[in-house]
Structure formats: C-alpha cells, structure tokens
Structure of Small ribosomal subunit protein uS5:
Amino acid sequence: MAEYKKEEKSLKEKVVTINRVSKVVKGGKRFSFNALVIVGGEKGQVGYGLGKANDVSDAIRKGTGRARKNMISISLNGRTIPYKVTGHFGASSVVLKPASPGTGVVAGGSVRAIMECAEINDIVAKSIGSTNPFNLVCATFDGLKQLRTEEEIKRVRGKEEKSESLGT
C-alpha cells in the first residue's frame, strides 16, 4: 500500500482542457463538465484520460484515474525521441521531430503538456489540421506509440538480415 502511494506522488498531472457541456431537458438546460488530463511518471511514462461529471473537481479526478490506467511507455534516445514520426487522429496530425540538446520543447498547447509530463526535454512538434485539444492528444499518442528502440527494430528485422547475409 505504501509503495502505491509513493508512486502516485511521483506522477505529474496536467489538465489540458475543461469543457462545460449542456443537455437540453424538459425543464431547461442541464450543465456538466469534462476534463482532459495528462499524467506522466518517470522518463517516458505518460497517459491521458477524459473524465466527465457534474462537477469540475470530479471530472478532473475521473480523468486522472483514467490517465493512470492508460499509461504507455515511450522509447527515448536520451533527452529526445529516436526519429521523426507522424501521428494522426481524426482531422488532426502531429509531426514529432527529434531535436539537438538544448533546444527544449518546441510545441504548442496540449502537445507541450504531453512532452513535459513524459519528461521529453528536446523535441520539435508541429500540429497540422484540426486544433481540437482531444484530437491533438490522441494524434500525439498515436505518434509516440510508433516509436521503437534500435534493439526492437533489429529483433523484428533479424530474420531479414540473416537471409540477406546467407545469400551473399
């Protein structure tokens, strides 16, 4: 139990957006809220969650819980990503490029929040298309999920390399 609480304290939480939504009912409008939350842990651990509730604080709490459950691990090359990737979701696209040390995080809005929570220190990101925060977060995660380490790529291509070396 103590280890779990210790793990919770090391996580960074960032609320990307809070929306007030309304539902029209017989007596008028009924308002509720949704919150998009990014949670990041140690190097390369990050997740996102969307929480919905009648109160802002409950929506943030639910979003944080979902983000902790949906955490992914990112393959990093030191302080940056190993190579250029493009993520797509809906009408949004995000291009993520590695940057040299000292560049910092060159990204806007919700993409910046993800990079800071994942502790990616040097990266250049460009958002193309729709700037809807939820779509940008999903597109960024699509790009980050495509990243592989050099060892993983070699393992996947291992059979191809062996067959080529036998043929020559």
User: Anything to note?
Assistant: The chain has two domains: 2-72, 75-148. Strands lie at 12-25, 28-40, 45-53, 72-73, 85-89, 92-98, 105-106, 123-129. The chain is about 35% helix and 35% strand.
